[in-house]
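Your task:
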Amino acid sequence: MSNKEVKAALKSAREAIRNKEYKEALKHCKAVLKQEKNNYNAWVFIGLAAAELEQPDQAKGAYRKAVELEPNQLLAWQGLANLFEKSSQTDVKGDLADVYQKLLELYESGDKQKWCDVCNKLVELYHQEKKYLEVARMWHKLIQVKKEGGADNAELHQLWKKMIQLLADRTQNQDNETEQLLLTAFEHAVNSCDSVPSDEHQNLYKDFVQCLSKLPHETLRLKKTCDDMMALYPTVRYPLEVLCLHFIQSGTFTEEALHCFSRLLEMDPSSGPGIIGSGIKYLQERKYEEAVKSLTEGLEKISQCPSGWYYLARAQMKMHKHKEAVLSCNRALKTLGPLESSDLQQKNLILQLKAEALIKIANAEAAEEAINALEQIVDAGSDPVLLALRGQAYLNKGLRAEASKISHELLLSHPDLAEAHALEGFIHYSQKNYEQAEKSFQNAIERKAETAEYHQYLGLTYWFMSDETRKDKGKTLTHFLKAAKLDSYLGSVFCCLGNYYRDIAGDKSRARGCYKKAFELDGADEESGSAAVDLSVELGDMDTALSILNEVTEKASTGTAKWAWLQRGLYYLRTDQPLQAVVDLQAAVRADPKDANCWESLGEAYLSRGSYMTALKSFTKASELNPELVYSVYKTAAIQQIQGKYKEAIATYQQILTKTKDYMPALKGLGECYFMLAKSALDQYFDGK
């Protein structure tokens, strides 16, 4: 076949393809290839015809042969692109991306419009594959090409906005280059907007601020962008709220941060971030009650704020609200998002605070939970303070040997650590080794003199060491007072002071004040509440006693606050108010059905009311629970006597007298019963009896 015939065959193949006679076209092409096996056009036409005949493998092979022969010719690459675009196979996407890249290279110096069309297709392909870096690079290059081609500001603005849309669904966990290209797109989109101010421009700014707020290392850019937006839109709260949340999350409380909190609250007194910020300010100023109030209110409005919950837990810890602090720590942990390095540090702080709160609750179940929290902290084994906490948790759980091992190791490796000496002190104190405990707490105080707990425990050590040290003002009282001065929210130390003033100094008035303070700080402290009531009664101040009891019983749920119900019930008994006494003493019995004293008091109330049968049941129950309660047995006999059951009463009186021969009320009752039996016999003429 001559050169002329080859050209004629190729022309015939082209005509056949135009007429959709693809098999005929293949014949002409094969004839050409017999003569010229490296004929570029013949291979391209075979590819095109085979593709139309749905023979993709043959088409692909033909196009591949063509591009090998002429790698810088467009036709074969265009054919490959069309073939891969129509393919339903997912594994061709990588090949298609390579073809688009080659087409871009070929179009770059020529047809800019076609270059842009292919670029659009390639970006879409990368976006489907979630290759965001490649998306960012290609779209940025497309914008540069459009800019060089003389695109106007409006078109460029739309292109920057499109770039934001392509990348915005992957703001977090991006590589730095993609991140920076996205931020560049935001800056250009904001600056190229025609109408300023406008809703579109404001929304773009909002999205920009939101994007920056998710990038911890872009603090300066975030501040600048928020400042710029506030300058343009001074009545819009959003940038100020984001900035305040940034300060809260990062733990930054400079004058600038405090000014932002104040400014936000001026704009909107109900703003969650603003209220949380003011709560943190109160915490810094040691106004813990105000801090708890503000943080709680702020978190009701914006609950997904782990730092807010953490600061609330810290304020609650300062007020020794340990159970509430644990709940706040749990909320903080729950609201933490995917952990980055900064979040991991925050998580460790929350877990440590949770462990500290659980240790203060001081029971075995809380100790186990504290150990679990400490185990979740990264590198906890290398932190001596955390090891000391673990030792305290072991001690609370009753694992004294494990606690002692940690204490010994810490004292060897960190002899200047106050927590190590304190742990040793707690261990000695739990074993009643008070002389050793004294030395340990003294060592802890030497290293950390401002810790109230160490002074309190040194005072308690002296209290239990001996009568001499208990009465020594320079020891017991001095350290209790020091602890109270260092921590005015430490309710237990005020109870200790109450014990000292009542039992040692004999100052009932001052003791009552201390117990009252302790109970105000910790409403669950029954010892302090009960002592405050008892001393009020002794001092003739029934109003104060009733005030305390009323406050407790109003808040008490069913089955709780036995001491308060019992005390108030006894007060009503003494003041001849049996109906109220019965109600309160029934509540006391519900709180502790196995307390014989409560049953005895309830029986007395029923008796005062004239309810003999229920009184009898109550006294019987009391004597069953505690057979040593002679008074309950006596009252049982007395009721039997009142009911005229003299024989039963005589048996009960005799039961008492077998144990207590000289119990005068029983002797008197027994005589009366015999007398009544004799009188009954005379009335019936049974003289012989």
